[in-house]
Amino acid sequence: MNFALAIEHPVIIPSNEVHLDGILHIPTDAKGLVLFVHGSGSSRFSLRNKQVATALNEAKIATLLFDLLTAEEEIVDDQTRELRFDIEFLASRLIDVTDWCIEQFVTSPLEIGYFGASTGGGAALMAAAQMPDKIKAVVSRGGRPDLAGDSLAQVKSPTLLIVGGNDEVVIELNKKAMSNLHCIKKLEIVPGATHLFEEPGALDQVSKLAKMWFTKYLHPK
Question: Strands (DSSP E) along the chain, which ranges?
Answer without folding.
Answer: 8-15, 18-25, 33-37, 62-66, 112-117, 135-141, 159-164, 185-190
